[in-house]
Amino acid sequence: MMLRFLLLTLAAGLRLNNDPVRLWEEHPASTAEELQELLTSMIVEAGTVQVPHKAGGAEAQEVELRKVVADMRKPKDLLANMIHTIWQSSSTKRCHQQLEQVMGNLTLTCEGLQPKTDWILDYYASPLPNKTCTQSVSDIFASGDELVSILQVSRSAVASLDVSDETFRRYQALSFLRNWLVKLTRTHHHALIWAGFWDGDPQKRTTKGKLSNFAKSVEHATMHPDSFLGQVIEGSQNLDACYEDAQTIALAGNMWSIASMSFVLGMREKAQGTVIALVNKKITGERNLSQSVLSTHEIPTVGLAAWGLGFWSPKVIVVDLMGTCSQTSPALQKQLFARLPTWAKSMKRWSAEAFARRSRLQWQCIDCSGTCSLDDALAEHVEKLVKAKEAQDRKDQELRQ
User: Fold this and answer.
1) Contact (Cβ atoms closer than 8 angstroms) between residue 253 and residue 68
2) Residue 89: band (very low, low, confident or very high) from pLDDT cuts 50, 70, 90
3) Minimal CA–CA distance to 214: which of 322, 375, 365, 367?
4) What is the four-CA torsion angle of 323, 326, 328, 331, rounded to 10 degrees?
5) Collapsing DSSP states into helix, strand and coil, what is residue 349?
6) Which of 137, 141, 145, 245 makes the best surface tag, with the fewest CB within 10 Å?
7) Beta strand ranges found along 325-383 (DSSP E)
8) What angle do CA 14, 16, 17 make, to 5 degrees?
9) Distance separating alpha carbons of residues 113 and 116, to the nearest angstrom
10) Are 42 and 340 in contact (CB under 8 A)?
11) Burial of 56 (0-12, 13-18, 19+ CB in 10 A)
Protein backbone atom coordinates (compact mmCIF):
# COMPACT_ATOMS: atom_id res chain seq x y z
CA MET A 1 0.00 0.00 0.00
CA MET A 2 2.83 2.39 0.93
CA LEU A 3 4.67 1.55 -2.30
CA ARG A 4 1.53 2.28 -4.34
CA PHE A 5 1.11 5.64 -2.57
CA LEU A 6 4.74 6.58 -3.29
CA LEU A 7 4.37 5.65 -6.96
CA LEU A 8 1.18 7.73 -7.32
CA THR A 9 2.86 10.69 -5.63
CA LEU A 10 5.90 10.38 -7.89
CA ALA A 11 3.69 10.19 -11.00
CA ALA A 12 1.76 13.27 -9.94
CA GLY A 13 5.00 15.13 -9.37
CA LEU A 14 6.27 14.19 -12.80
CA ARG A 15 3.04 15.44 -14.39
CA LEU A 16 3.35 18.74 -12.56
CA ASN A 17 6.97 19.11 -13.64
CA ASN A 18 6.10 18.34 -17.26
CA ASP A 19 3.12 20.71 -17.41
CA PRO A 20 4.08 24.09 -18.89
CA VAL A 21 4.04 26.86 -16.31
CA ARG A 22 1.53 29.52 -17.28
CA LEU A 23 3.30 32.86 -17.41
CA TRP A 24 0.12 34.68 -18.41
CA GLU A 25 -3.04 35.55 -16.53
CA GLU A 26 -6.37 34.93 -18.20
CA HIS A 27 -9.12 37.23 -17.00
CA PRO A 28 -12.75 36.01 -16.89
CA ALA A 29 -14.54 36.58 -20.18
CA SER A 30 -17.21 39.25 -20.52
CA THR A 31 -20.30 37.35 -21.60
CA ALA A 32 -22.58 38.40 -24.44
CA GLU A 33 -25.28 39.30 -21.91
CA GLU A 34 -22.91 41.54 -19.91
CA LEU A 35 -21.82 43.41 -23.03
CA GLN A 36 -25.41 43.75 -24.24
CA GLU A 37 -26.39 45.28 -20.90
CA LEU A 38 -23.44 47.68 -21.02
CA LEU A 39 -24.28 48.74 -24.58
CA THR A 40 -27.95 49.24 -23.70
CA SER A 41 -26.95 51.58 -20.85
CA MET A 42 -24.66 53.57 -23.17
CA ILE A 43 -27.39 53.95 -25.80
CA VAL A 44 -29.97 55.08 -23.24
CA GLU A 45 -27.50 57.51 -21.66
CA ALA A 46 -26.49 58.93 -25.05
CA GLY A 47 -30.16 59.48 -25.89
CA THR A 48 -30.49 61.96 -23.02
CA VAL A 49 -27.57 64.10 -24.22
CA GLN A 50 -28.18 66.73 -26.89
CA VAL A 51 -25.15 66.95 -29.16
CA PRO A 52 -24.97 70.21 -31.14
CA HIS A 53 -24.78 69.63 -34.87
CA LYS A 54 -22.40 71.79 -36.86
CA ALA A 55 -24.24 72.25 -40.13
CA GLY A 56 -21.99 71.95 -43.14
CA GLY A 57 -18.86 71.26 -41.08
CA ALA A 58 -18.12 67.87 -42.60
CA GLU A 59 -18.96 69.06 -46.11
CA ALA A 60 -16.68 72.10 -45.78
CA GLN A 61 -13.76 69.96 -44.62
CA GLU A 62 -14.37 67.48 -47.43
CA VAL A 63 -14.21 70.26 -50.04
CA GLU A 64 -10.97 71.55 -48.54
CA LEU A 65 -9.36 68.10 -48.41
CA ARG A 66 -10.42 67.31 -52.00
CA LYS A 67 -8.55 70.43 -53.13
CA VAL A 68 -5.42 69.21 -51.31
CA VAL A 69 -5.71 65.74 -52.86
CA ALA A 70 -6.33 67.16 -56.34
CA ASP A 71 -3.31 69.43 -56.00
CA MET A 72 -1.09 66.51 -55.01
CA ARG A 73 -2.22 64.47 -58.01
CA LYS A 74 -1.87 67.32 -60.50
CA PRO A 75 1.20 67.10 -62.79
CA LYS A 76 3.61 69.99 -62.10
CA ASP A 77 6.23 71.55 -64.33
CA LEU A 78 9.84 71.91 -63.17
CA LEU A 79 9.46 75.50 -61.86
CA ALA A 80 6.27 74.64 -59.96
CA ASN A 81 8.01 71.64 -58.41
CA MET A 82 10.93 73.83 -57.27
CA ILE A 83 8.61 76.42 -55.68
CA HIS A 84 6.55 73.65 -54.08
CA THR A 85 9.67 72.01 -52.61
CA ILE A 86 10.99 75.30 -51.17
CA TRP A 87 7.59 76.16 -49.63
CA GLN A 88 7.03 72.78 -47.97
CA SER A 89 8.65 71.69 -44.72
CA SER A 90 10.60 68.43 -44.90
CA SER A 91 7.90 66.50 -42.98
CA THR A 92 5.09 67.88 -45.19
CA LYS A 93 7.07 67.02 -48.30
CA ARG A 94 7.66 63.46 -47.07
CA CYS A 95 3.98 63.13 -46.12
CA HIS A 96 2.87 64.21 -49.59
CA GLN A 97 5.27 61.70 -51.14
CA GLN A 98 3.81 58.95 -48.96
CA LEU A 99 0.24 59.95 -49.81
CA GLU A 100 0.98 60.15 -53.54
CA GLN A 101 2.54 56.67 -53.44
CA VAL A 102 -0.49 55.14 -51.70
CA MET A 103 -2.91 56.94 -54.05
CA GLY A 104 -1.02 55.81 -57.13
CA ASN A 105 -0.86 52.16 -56.06
CA LEU A 106 -4.52 52.05 -55.06
CA THR A 107 -5.70 53.73 -58.27
CA LEU A 108 -3.85 51.24 -60.48
CA THR A 109 -5.15 48.29 -58.46
CA CYS A 110 -8.72 49.61 -58.53
CA GLU A 111 -8.61 50.03 -62.31
CA GLY A 112 -7.49 46.42 -62.67
CA LEU A 113 -10.49 45.20 -60.64
CA GLN A 114 -13.07 47.20 -62.67
CA PRO A 115 -15.47 47.76 -59.73
CA LYS A 116 -19.12 48.76 -59.96
CA THR A 117 -21.61 50.50 -57.68
CA ASP A 118 -24.70 48.90 -56.15
CA TRP A 119 -27.06 48.04 -59.03
CA ILE A 120 -30.08 49.61 -57.29
CA LEU A 121 -28.55 53.02 -58.02
CA ASP A 122 -29.14 52.44 -61.74
CA TYR A 123 -32.89 52.89 -61.20
CA TYR A 124 -32.64 56.27 -59.50
CA ALA A 125 -34.59 59.04 -61.25
CA SER A 126 -31.53 61.30 -61.48
CA PRO A 127 -28.57 58.89 -61.57
CA LEU A 128 -25.16 60.25 -60.65
CA PRO A 129 -22.25 60.01 -63.11
CA ASN A 130 -20.35 56.73 -62.91
CA LYS A 131 -17.54 56.67 -60.37
CA THR A 132 -13.94 56.41 -61.53
CA CYS A 133 -11.07 54.83 -59.61
CA THR A 134 -9.32 58.20 -59.35
CA GLN A 135 -12.42 59.66 -57.70
CA SER A 136 -12.81 56.63 -55.44
CA VAL A 137 -9.25 56.90 -54.12
CA SER A 138 -9.84 60.62 -53.50
CA ASP A 139 -12.97 59.64 -51.54
CA ILE A 140 -10.80 57.58 -49.18
CA PHE A 141 -8.68 60.55 -48.14
CA ALA A 142 -11.20 63.38 -48.41
CA SER A 143 -14.28 61.82 -46.80
CA GLY A 144 -13.33 58.43 -45.36
CA ASP A 145 -14.70 59.05 -41.87
CA GLU A 146 -18.03 60.30 -43.25
CA LEU A 147 -18.32 57.35 -45.63
CA VAL A 148 -17.96 54.85 -42.77
CA SER A 149 -21.04 56.39 -41.14
CA ILE A 150 -23.00 55.68 -44.36
CA LEU A 151 -22.77 51.96 -43.50
CA GLN A 152 -25.87 52.59 -41.39
CA VAL A 153 -27.93 53.61 -44.45
CA SER A 154 -29.92 50.57 -45.59
CA ARG A 155 -30.35 49.54 -49.22
CA SER A 156 -34.11 49.61 -48.69
CA ALA A 157 -33.93 53.29 -47.67
CA VAL A 158 -31.98 54.08 -50.84
CA ALA A 159 -34.34 52.00 -53.00
CA SER A 160 -37.37 53.82 -51.58
CA LEU A 161 -35.69 57.22 -52.18
CA ASP A 162 -35.89 57.91 -48.45
CA VAL A 163 -32.48 59.62 -48.27
CA SER A 164 -31.11 63.09 -48.95
CA ASP A 165 -29.13 63.89 -52.10
CA GLU A 166 -25.95 64.17 -50.01
CA THR A 167 -26.54 60.75 -48.42
CA PHE A 168 -27.27 59.28 -51.86
CA ARG A 169 -23.98 60.69 -53.19
CA ARG A 170 -22.06 59.18 -50.29
CA TYR A 171 -23.89 55.86 -50.58
CA GLN A 172 -22.74 55.66 -54.20
CA ALA A 173 -19.16 56.46 -53.17
CA LEU A 174 -19.18 53.84 -50.41
CA SER A 175 -20.75 51.08 -52.52
CA PHE A 176 -18.17 51.61 -55.28
CA LEU A 177 -15.36 51.68 -52.69
CA ARG A 178 -16.49 48.50 -50.94
CA ASN A 179 -16.70 46.71 -54.28
CA TRP A 180 -12.94 46.90 -54.77
CA LEU A 181 -11.18 47.85 -51.52
CA VAL A 182 -12.46 45.02 -49.29
CA LYS A 183 -10.94 42.56 -51.79
CA LEU A 184 -7.51 44.00 -50.99
CA THR A 185 -7.80 42.98 -47.32
CA ARG A 186 -7.92 39.25 -48.02
CA THR A 187 -5.39 37.00 -46.28
CA HIS A 188 -4.86 33.23 -46.52
CA HIS A 189 -5.80 32.82 -42.85
CA HIS A 190 -8.11 34.61 -40.43
CA ALA A 191 -6.80 38.08 -39.61
CA LEU A 192 -5.63 39.59 -36.33
CA ILE A 193 -5.05 43.22 -35.35
CA TRP A 194 -2.23 44.69 -33.31
CA ALA A 195 -0.68 47.84 -31.83
CA GLY A 196 2.75 48.74 -30.48
CA PHE A 197 5.10 46.14 -31.97
CA TRP A 198 8.43 47.40 -33.31
CA ASP A 199 11.77 45.93 -34.37
CA GLY A 200 13.70 48.29 -32.07
CA ASP A 201 12.65 46.41 -28.91
CA PRO A 202 15.98 45.75 -27.09
CA GLN A 203 14.52 42.66 -25.36
CA LYS A 204 13.33 41.21 -28.71
CA ARG A 205 10.04 40.41 -26.96
CA THR A 206 7.64 42.57 -28.98
CA THR A 207 9.26 42.73 -32.40
CA LYS A 208 7.27 42.47 -35.62
CA GLY A 209 9.04 39.16 -36.22
CA LYS A 210 7.63 37.80 -32.94
CA LEU A 211 4.21 39.14 -33.93
CA SER A 212 4.35 37.45 -37.33
CA ASN A 213 5.51 34.12 -35.90
CA PHE A 214 2.76 34.17 -33.26
CA ALA A 215 0.15 34.91 -35.93
CA LYS A 216 1.33 31.89 -37.95
CA SER A 217 1.31 29.70 -34.81
CA VAL A 218 -2.40 30.42 -34.26
CA GLU A 219 -3.13 30.09 -38.00
CA HIS A 220 -3.82 33.80 -38.39
CA ALA A 221 -2.31 36.60 -40.45
CA THR A 222 -1.69 40.24 -39.59
CA MET A 223 -3.95 42.62 -41.53
CA HIS A 224 -0.96 44.83 -42.15
CA PRO A 225 1.32 43.87 -43.78
CA ASP A 226 -0.02 40.43 -44.79
CA SER A 227 -2.92 41.75 -46.90
CA PHE A 228 -2.34 43.66 -50.14
CA LEU A 229 -3.87 46.81 -48.66
CA GLY A 230 -1.64 46.45 -45.60
CA GLN A 231 1.42 46.13 -47.85
CA VAL A 232 0.48 49.29 -49.75
CA ILE A 233 0.12 51.26 -46.51
CA GLU A 234 3.29 49.83 -44.96
CA GLY A 235 5.16 50.53 -48.21
CA SER A 236 4.51 54.21 -47.48
CA GLN A 237 5.73 53.86 -43.87
CA ASN A 238 2.14 53.89 -42.53
CA LEU A 239 2.00 57.61 -43.44
CA ASP A 240 4.20 58.32 -40.40
CA ALA A 241 5.13 61.78 -41.73
CA CYS A 242 1.50 62.93 -41.87
CA TYR A 243 0.85 63.62 -38.19
CA GLU A 244 2.29 67.12 -37.72
CA ASP A 245 -0.19 69.21 -39.72
CA ALA A 246 -3.97 69.40 -39.18
CA GLN A 247 -4.73 68.91 -42.87
CA THR A 248 -2.51 65.88 -43.38
CA ILE A 249 -3.68 64.42 -40.06
CA ALA A 250 -7.23 64.59 -41.44
CA LEU A 251 -6.16 62.90 -44.69
CA ALA A 252 -4.38 60.08 -42.84
CA GLY A 253 -7.27 59.70 -40.40
CA ASN A 254 -9.77 59.32 -43.24
CA MET A 255 -7.58 56.67 -44.84
CA TRP A 256 -7.33 54.68 -41.59
CA SER A 257 -11.11 54.89 -41.12
CA ILE A 258 -11.72 53.36 -44.54
CA ALA A 259 -8.85 50.86 -44.28
CA SER A 260 -10.09 49.66 -40.87
CA MET A 261 -13.64 49.41 -42.21
CA SER A 262 -12.39 47.29 -45.09
CA PHE A 263 -10.26 45.07 -42.84
CA VAL A 264 -13.16 44.39 -40.46
CA LEU A 265 -15.75 43.93 -43.22
CA GLY A 266 -13.39 41.32 -44.65
CA MET A 267 -13.45 39.50 -41.29
CA ARG A 268 -17.24 39.68 -41.18
CA GLU A 269 -17.64 38.42 -44.75
CA LYS A 270 -15.61 35.32 -43.79
CA ALA A 271 -17.71 34.94 -40.60
CA GLN A 272 -14.49 35.00 -38.59
CA GLY A 273 -15.37 33.68 -35.12
CA THR A 274 -12.59 35.37 -33.17
CA VAL A 275 -10.86 38.74 -33.37
CA ILE A 276 -7.40 38.53 -31.80
CA ALA A 277 -5.93 41.89 -30.76
CA LEU A 278 -2.29 41.97 -29.64
CA VAL A 279 -1.54 45.13 -27.66
CA ASN A 280 1.80 46.52 -26.50
CA LYS A 281 0.95 50.11 -25.60
CA LYS A 282 0.32 51.96 -22.35
CA ILE A 283 -2.98 53.70 -21.69
CA THR A 284 -1.28 57.05 -20.99
CA GLY A 285 1.91 58.77 -22.08
CA GLU A 286 3.57 59.27 -25.45
CA ARG A 287 2.12 57.22 -28.33
CA ASN A 288 -0.45 55.69 -26.01
CA LEU A 289 -3.08 53.09 -26.84
CA SER A 290 -5.91 55.60 -27.20
CA GLN A 291 -4.01 57.26 -30.09
CA SER A 292 -3.42 53.99 -31.95
CA VAL A 293 -5.18 52.89 -35.14
CA LEU A 294 -6.39 49.80 -33.26
CA SER A 295 -8.21 51.91 -30.64
CA THR A 296 -9.45 54.81 -32.78
CA HIS A 297 -10.45 52.88 -35.92
CA GLU A 298 -10.23 49.08 -35.85
CA ILE A 299 -12.00 48.23 -32.57
CA PRO A 300 -14.85 50.77 -33.18
CA THR A 301 -15.36 49.23 -36.63
CA VAL A 302 -15.64 45.76 -35.06
CA GLY A 303 -18.53 47.23 -33.05
CA LEU A 304 -20.14 48.68 -36.18
CA ALA A 305 -19.83 45.38 -38.04
CA ALA A 306 -21.17 43.32 -35.12
CA TRP A 307 -24.11 45.45 -33.93
CA GLY A 308 -24.59 48.04 -36.67
CA LEU A 309 -24.61 45.70 -39.66
CA GLY A 310 -25.74 43.09 -37.19
CA PHE A 311 -25.70 39.37 -36.58
CA TRP A 312 -21.92 38.83 -36.41
CA SER A 313 -20.87 37.57 -32.99
CA PRO A 314 -17.11 37.08 -32.73
CA LYS A 315 -15.14 36.63 -29.53
CA VAL A 316 -12.57 39.40 -29.08
CA ILE A 317 -9.39 38.08 -27.45
CA VAL A 318 -7.04 40.84 -26.28
CA VAL A 319 -3.47 39.81 -25.41
CA ASP A 320 -1.91 42.65 -23.38
CA LEU A 321 1.90 42.52 -23.46
CA MET A 322 2.03 45.30 -20.84
CA GLY A 323 0.01 43.24 -18.37
CA THR A 324 -2.58 46.00 -17.92
CA CYS A 325 -5.85 44.24 -18.83
CA SER A 326 -7.58 45.98 -15.92
CA GLN A 327 -7.09 49.28 -17.81
CA THR A 328 -6.88 48.13 -21.42
CA SER A 329 -10.09 46.09 -21.47
CA PRO A 330 -12.46 48.84 -20.22
CA ALA A 331 -10.82 51.42 -22.51
CA LEU A 332 -11.12 49.24 -25.62
CA GLN A 333 -14.67 48.13 -24.76
CA LYS A 334 -15.62 51.79 -24.59
CA GLN A 335 -14.17 52.21 -28.09
CA LEU A 336 -16.02 49.10 -29.26
CA PHE A 337 -19.29 50.90 -28.50
CA ALA A 338 -18.13 54.42 -29.46
CA ARG A 339 -20.07 54.76 -32.74
CA LEU A 340 -23.07 52.64 -31.85
CA PRO A 341 -25.37 55.11 -30.01
CA THR A 342 -25.61 57.25 -33.17
CA TRP A 343 -26.33 54.16 -35.26
CA ALA A 344 -28.94 52.92 -32.78
CA LYS A 345 -30.64 56.32 -32.85
CA SER A 346 -31.03 56.08 -36.63
CA MET A 347 -32.87 52.75 -36.28
CA LYS A 348 -36.08 54.20 -34.91
CA ARG A 349 -38.00 50.91 -34.85
CA TRP A 350 -35.43 49.25 -32.60
CA SER A 351 -35.39 49.77 -28.83
CA ALA A 352 -32.01 50.10 -27.10
CA GLU A 353 -32.39 46.57 -25.71
CA ALA A 354 -33.32 45.08 -29.09
CA PHE A 355 -30.41 46.84 -30.81
CA ALA A 356 -27.97 45.49 -28.18
CA ARG A 357 -29.18 41.95 -28.91
CA ARG A 358 -28.17 42.21 -32.60
CA SER A 359 -24.82 40.64 -31.65
CA ARG A 360 -23.64 38.15 -29.03
CA LEU A 361 -20.04 39.34 -29.11
CA GLN A 362 -17.87 38.13 -26.21
CA TRP A 363 -14.67 39.65 -24.82
CA GLN A 364 -11.65 38.25 -23.00
CA CYS A 365 -8.29 39.74 -22.03
CA ILE A 366 -5.03 37.90 -21.27
CA ASP A 367 -2.22 39.61 -19.36
CA CYS A 368 1.22 38.64 -20.69
CA SER A 369 3.96 40.74 -19.07
CA GLY A 370 7.43 40.25 -17.60
CA THR A 371 8.80 36.84 -18.57
CA CYS A 372 5.65 36.02 -20.54
CA SER A 373 6.14 36.24 -24.30
CA LEU A 374 4.47 35.32 -27.56
CA ASP A 375 5.86 31.79 -27.35
CA ASP A 376 4.52 28.40 -28.42
CA ALA A 377 2.79 27.78 -25.07
CA LEU A 378 0.75 31.00 -25.29
CA ALA A 379 0.03 30.38 -28.97
CA GLU A 380 -1.26 26.90 -28.14
CA HIS A 381 -3.51 28.33 -25.42
CA VAL A 382 -4.93 31.07 -27.67
CA GLU A 383 -5.48 28.53 -30.44
CA LYS A 384 -7.53 26.41 -28.00
CA LEU A 385 -9.73 29.44 -27.32
CA VAL A 386 -10.14 29.96 -31.07
CA LYS A 387 -11.01 26.29 -31.67
CA ALA A 388 -13.49 26.32 -28.78
CA LYS A 389 -15.27 29.32 -30.33
CA GLU A 390 -15.34 27.59 -33.73
CA ALA A 391 -16.90 24.50 -32.13
CA GLN A 392 -19.50 26.65 -30.37
CA ASP A 393 -20.34 28.45 -33.64
CA ARG A 394 -20.83 25.11 -35.40
CA LYS A 395 -23.09 23.90 -32.60
CA ASP A 396 -25.14 27.12 -32.73
CA GLN A 397 -25.45 26.78 -36.51
CA GLU A 398 -26.72 23.20 -36.19
CA LEU A 399 -29.32 24.26 -33.63
CA ARG A 400 -30.62 26.98 -35.97
CA GLN A 401 -31.09 24.57 -38.88
Assistant:
1) no
2) low
3) 375
4) -170
5) coil
6) 245
7) 362-367
8) 65
9) 9
10) yes
11) exposed
Q: Which of 372, 305, 303, 308 is CA-nearest to residue 334?
A: 303
- Angle ∠(306,311,317) on CA atoms, nearest 5: 45
Q: Which of 4-8, 74-78, 316-320 has the highest mean pLDDT?
A: 316-320
What residues form DSSP beta bridges with 318? 277, 365
Instruction: Say what the pTM is.
Output: 0.83
Residue 337, SS3 per DSSP: coil
Contact 69, 106 (CB under 8 A): no
Rg for the chain, CA atoms, rounded: 24
Phi-psi bin for 310: left (phi > 0), alpha (psi -120 to 50), beta?
left
Cβ neighbours, 10 Å, residue 113: 13
Residues 103/254, Cβ–Cβ less than 8 Å? no
Distance separating the N- and C-terminal Cα atoms of the chain: 56
238-290 pLDDT, tens digit each = 898 998 888 889 999 999 999 999 999 999 998 999 999 999 999 988 889 99
Nearest residue to 285 (alpha-carbon basis) of 330, 319, 327:
327
Cβ proximity of 266 and 186 under 8 Å: yes
Residue 114: left (phi > 0), alpha (psi -120 to 50), or beta? Answer: left
Query: Which H or E run contains 315?
Result: strand 315-320
DSSP state of 238: G
> Do the beta carbons of residue 162 and residue 176 sit within 8 Å?
no
